[in-house]
């Protein structure tokens, strides 16, 4: 479990570029049962005290990259900020013969643009396909569309 201290009264910033060997700042390559909990003390609450900010501006490179049969991982109460033109969270693809990335839970998170610069990421949550390694769905664009409809 990666969590904020129980006495954290302000947001802790984790800032960096993507990992040059993979597609994200934080990479869960086949990782199982990993918890990132931004609530103070790791109580799975809703108060966000951890911010992951990617400085990368390349499409398909994300603050979090989850792939290769990663299962049962949890992102809770995090502020996840992607760079201009990049992704906040990318899921997949897995290696051939895998069973998929299953049971990743993203809850109580604020997923959006960097609060220290202008512009927005290209993808909020990007799901990739295995064969061509291209986007099959972007939940960020769906959320923007729903927000426009609701106004």
Helix-strand layout with pairing:
Elements (H helix, E strand, L loop, with lengths): L1 E2 L8 E5 L7 E6 L5 E3 L12 E5 L7 E6 L6 E3 L1 E5 L4 E5 L13 E3 L2 E4 L9 E6 L6 E4 H12 L1
Parallel strand pairs: 1-4, 2-5, 3-6, 4-7, 5-8, 6-9, 7-10, 8-11, 9-12
Antiparallel strand pairs: 12-13
Characterize this entry briefly.
With 151 residues, the chain is mainly β. Helices cover 8% and strands 38% of the residues.
Descriptive labels:
151 residues; mainly beta; 13 strands; 1 helix; four-stranded parallel beta sheet; disordered C terminus; five-stranded mixed beta sheet; globular
Describe the structure.
By secondary structure, the chain is mainly beta. The chain contains one helix and 13 strands. Strands 3-6-9-12-13 form a five-stranded mixed sheet. The chain has a four-stranded parallel sheet with strand order 1-4-7-10, with no helix packed on it. The longest helix has 12 residues, at 139-150. It is globular and about 40 Å long. It starts with a strand and ends with a helix. Residues 130-151 have low confidence and may be disordered.
In N-to-C order, the SSE pattern is EEEEEEEEEEEEEH
Q: Can you summarize the main beta sheet?
A: 5 strands, mixed
Give the strand order, joined by hyphens, for the main sheet. Answer: 3-6-9-12-13
Provide mean pLDDT, rounded: 75
């Amino acid at each position: 479990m990666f969590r904020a201290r129980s006495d954290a009264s302000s947001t802790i910033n984790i800032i960096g570029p993507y990992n040059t060997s993979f597609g994200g700042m934080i990479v869960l390559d086949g990782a199982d049962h990993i918890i990132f909990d931004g609530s103070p003390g790791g109580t799975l609450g809703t108060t966000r005290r951890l911010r992951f900010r990617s400085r990368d501006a390349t499409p398909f490179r994300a603050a979090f990259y989850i792939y290769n049969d990663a299962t049962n991982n949890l992102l809770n109460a995090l502020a996840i900020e992607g760079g201009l033109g990049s992704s906040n969270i990318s899921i997949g693809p897995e290696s051939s013969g895998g069973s998929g990335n299953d049971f990743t839970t993203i809850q109580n998170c604020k997923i959006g643009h960097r609060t220290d610069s202008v512009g927005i990421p290209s993808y909020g949550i990007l799901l990739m396909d295995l064969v061509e390694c291209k986007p099959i769905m972007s939940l960020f664009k769906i959320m923007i569309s729903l927000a426009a409809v609701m106004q």
